[in-house]
Amino acid sequence: MLKLLLSRLATAVPSIVGVVIVTFMLTRLLPGDPAAYFAGLAASPQAIAEIRTKLGLDKSLPEQFVAYIGDLVHGNLGNSLSTGQPVAAEIATRLPASAELTLTALILAVVIAIPLGVLAAVKQGTWIDHLCRIVTTAGVSLPVFFTGLLFAYVFYYLLQIAPAPSGRLDVFLSPPTDITGFYLIDSLLTANWETFWGALRQLALPAISMAIFSLAPLARMTRGSMLAVLGSDFIRTARASGLAPRTVVFTYAFRNAVLPVITTLGMVFSFLLGANVLVETVFAWPGIGLYAVNALITSDYAPVQGFVLTMAVLYVALNLAIDFVYGLVDPRVRLDT
Amino acid sequence: MNLLRHARYVLSENPVTGLAFGLFALFLIAAILGPALAPYNPLQSNSAMALKPPSAAHWFGTDQLGRDIFSRVLVATRLDLSIAFASVVLAFLLGALSGVAAGYFGGWTDRVVGRLADTIMAFPLFVLAMGIVAALGNKVINIVIATAIINFPLYARVARAEANVRREAGFVEAARLSGNGEARVVLGHVLPNIMPIMMVQMSLTMGYAILNAAGLSFIGLGVRPPDAEWGIMVAEGANFIQSGEWWIALFPGAALMLAVFCFNLLGDGLRDIIDPRKRT
Amino acid sequence: MSGVPALAVEDLSVEFRTRSGTVKVLERVGFEVGKGETIALVGESGSGKSVTAFAVMGILDPAGKVTSGRAMFGGSDLLALSEAELAEQRGRELSMIFQNPRTALNPIRKVGQQIADVLVRHGGATSLDAPKAAVEMLKKVRIPDPERRAEAYPFELSGGMCQRIMIAIALACRPALLIADEPTTGLDVTTQAVIMDLIGELARASGMATIFITHDLALAAEYCDRIVVMHAGHIVESAPGRALFGEPRHPYSAKLLAATPGDSATLESLASIPGNLPDLRRADLPSCRYSARCERRIDDCSGPLPRREIGERHIVACWNPL
Fold it and tell me: Are B156 and B247 in contact (CB under 8 A)?
């Protein structure tokens, strides 16, 4: 187990190196004067010159790179122009909101897509199979920001069963005690039912919009993988041994079929982290996506870079976790090293 | 022409593909003739007619500046499709060339291209596109470049696999033996041979490229008002959803969905025609 | 061999729906296996040997359908049982092993666990004793170091060992009948002999009947009491081993024997069977599917296919036997 963890960590190192290099390039190798970017649109030539020396932009590129690494190690992602606050701190406060949204969406998607795919494969040709086909073909065409808007219109404006898309909590409720940063978990832990319900209501529409977006690839992969496994030799042996249908489908077929689905999760996360930005914009969700979008509008440069770096590191960590889980399920990867 | 007969067979088996080709033709006409066919000037404001719902005079209603939404949606087709098409072509050029080189020559070339592709894939792709456009500047050309970069790994991977397979193929051996330099063999023989499969890739990623470009303009990157583009129109319409003026965001969004759907089906159909083995 | 046979297949016909039409894969196949008897089902690839086994076991591909016949086993017709009733019988009263043992085992489940699964399912052991019982089975199929091997995965074992695992799974509940579909194809010659000996020994020890499906006549000759020859979905001849090898009566059997390399075979002396298997999609198939390539063809051959008993348990389906 430890060996598996260490070997997976080793593969993450080149990715982190690549991410750091690319984000450095994005901050320094810009058309024009990088100092002008960081000083802002309305800066005077003196302000730009000050920023230049302050950020060390007058040094050579290798020296800048070393300084950049040093900054990262100390958690220094620069300061936001509009608020004057350190970007790292601002991202840290907003991260739980994005994490709660993305995780909820992922859980929702998995809980729907995988059973759907399994049933579609086991009961080929029935209505469930057709439903799965429709979901997978239509799902990949839906622009997530449009779906979110449609939901807001139908469920908030027309049917009035959803709250206004105005963030994590209604103005009348106050956030729960901060333990994990996840409003749902924190309010449950402190038995604050009113806040829990309020947070859940606000989370529903954005999470569902994101979930629909990632349903399609998961359901398609599950169905395809399940179909392939159900036709394989060892399933024939299992049936010939008279094993109960439940055992054949779940213990034998599903565990094998789930392997490519775990691999697909990597791609799904890539889409989800991107969809996060769009959904936060539509629903005014105070996460790091909205933070970056607002910074973009005001040409506030440092937060955008901090955001890209944070998302990339998160993504590498997620892929690591996926690789590790895969190794847990598939002994061939574990023992063949 | 055997291919034509096969195409006709696939179309008869799968009428949905025929529908996709029909839709594609419609979009093409809208893109080419859009401005000529639009009933109103898409940039013409008319505050007296602002925020009017769909009617006989304005099929899709008017937006907050009184502009006719149907005309804007129609005209936006050209911009959206061109951006997507340009980025797909650029991604193909960059990806196919490096991929073929990597698959054919192997060794050092393979490692470098692989590293490059892996580094791009280490980022959530939309986030990387945001970062690139923010760094290069808020212009439409940079949307094209950013979308091309994030699609590069896919093309490189497919091209590399196909080139690898063809490296030892008969026609390649023949080209080599007749005295062609390596570059000639790669460009003149291997690359043309993998074109059909790359065409399939291109139509499959058109849908994704359209979504990507629309997403970027939705958050304010690339296209600026008053230009008509589906993503930016949805963004403008988003402000009015909460007060019930649904038509401003709905019609451009629906056009977007339809375009992506059309290209996805088209890609699937092309793949069935060219390489039925890869069907899911 | 007296008494009720372990398995009696009568009049079995199977059709397959394909894109290019309906294929009559099996037509009126009938044979018997006595209790404790070992028979071989032989024929070229495509003769329908495996399909017969799959039909009897009830694991035909969904495109396949049994259109007539009975398979009497343990007092009931297997072909008339429901899926649930069949699942009770499979693995407990009748079992099957397949070729390519590596792919026939669950790749991500320990082999001991796979044996235990069958034991628990059919009540041969409780979930507590099953692991130990599995190790006992491993000893029975002579796998060295059974306690450690039970914790292994199929990819860690050789082809021969995987085949023994399959035998252990199949025999765990002491079935009355074992069907072995080309169990030694893909294994090296020494391992082949070892596996065949093992199956034979275990069968004799428990009085189990065995059906070996093979295209290897030499193997059939060495290990089986009786041989049933199939061609293009028909049974053409069935006889005790010695009788078939000494005096094959069906022209196809004779050709098959002549094509088998023996001790003194040379490249020149190896005969081949002219022609190809008929296209089974055709609606106008002759009643004798060998007649098109048969050199002993007479006018009677266009009539219905006979079933003539010409010797001690020696049946041949031919109007003009040798």
Answer: no
Token couple for C106: 């669950």
Mark B90-122 as b/e (b = at least 16 C-beta within 10 Å): bbbebbbbbbbbbbbeeeebbeebbebbebbbb
Which of A328, A305, A288, A230 minimizes the C-alpha distance to A30?
A305
Tell me chain B's radius of gyration from C-alpha atoms.
22
Which residue of chain A comes nearest to B210, CA vs CA? A143
Using a pLDDT cut of 90, give the percent of chain B over it. Answer: 28
Contact between C164 and C149 (Cβ < 8 Å)? no
Residues in chain B, total: 280
Contact C112, C151 (CB under 8 A): yes
CB pair distance less than 8 Å for A332 and C59: no
Q: Which residues of B touch A30 (CB under 8 A)?
A: 135-136
C28 Cβ contact partners less than 8 Å away, ≥ 6 residues apart: C11, C12, C13, C68, C69, C234, C305
pLDDT tens digits along C239-256: 998 888 888 888 888 888
Q: In 3-state terms, what secondary structure has residue C293?
A: helix
Q: Read off the amino acid at residue A149.
A: L
Would the CA dihedral through C303, C304, C309, C313 be positive or negative? Answer: positive
A vs B: CB pairs below 8 A? 138
User: Coil, helix or strand for C310?
Assistant: strand
Predicted confidence at residue A82, as pLDDT, reads: 79
β-bridge partners, A138: none
Residues B150-208 have pLDDT tens digits of 999 999 998 888 888 887 777 777 877 887 777 777 777 777 888 888 888 888 889 88
Q: How many angstroms away from the CA of B165 is the closest CA of chain A?
A: 24
Question: What is residue C319's three-state secondary structure?
Answer: coil
- Cβ neighbours of C107 in A, within 8 Å: 234, 256, 332
Q: CA A28, CA A126: separation in Å to the nearest integer?
A: 57
Phi-psi region of B222 (alpha: psi -120 to 50; beta: other; left: phi over 0): left
Q: Is B162 helix (H, G, I), strand (E, B) or coil?
A: helix
**What is the C-alpha to C-alpha distance for residues C25 and C132, in angstroms, rounded to an integer?**
43
Could you tell me the sign of the dihedral formed by the alpha carbons of C230, C231, C234, C240, in that order? negative
Instruction: Looking at the complex, report in whole angstroms how far the Cα of residue A293 sits from the nearest Cα belonging to chain B.
Output: 6
Q: Which residues are registered as beta bridge partners of C311?
A: C314
Contact A18 B119 (CB under 8 A): yes
Sign of CA dihedral A40, A45, A48, A54: negative
Chains B, C in contact, 3 or more Cβ pairs below 8 Å = no
Tokens representing C156? 């860690």
Other Cβ atoms closer than 10 A to A162: 18
- Interface touch A19/B123, C-beta < 8 Å: yes
Q: Phi first, then psi: what are they for C68, rounded to 5°?
A: -165, 165
Average pLDDT over chain C, rounded to an integer: 87
Mark residue C247 as left, alpha or beta (left: phi above 0; alpha: psi -120 to 50; beta: remaining): beta
Best mutation target, A227, A241, A254, A256, to test chain C (most C CBs within 10 A): A241
Distance (Å, whole) CA C183 – CA C213? 8
Tokens 């050789």 belong to C158
pLDDT tens digits, one per residue of A148-202: 888 888 888 888 888 887 778 777 778 888 888 788 888 888 888 888 888 888 8
The CA distances from residue B280 to A221, A303, B132, B271, B274, in Å, are 9, 42, 34, 11, 14
Which residue reads 């977007």 in tokens? B256
Structure tokens at C67: 């259109």
Question: C264 CA to chain A: closest CA distance, Å?
Answer: 38
Exposed / middle / buried, residue A42 (Cβ in 10 Å: 0-12, 13-18, 19+):
exposed
Please determine, for the modelled complex, whether the ipTM score is greater than 0.85. yes
* Other beta carbons within 10 Å of A93: 14
pTM of the model: 0.84
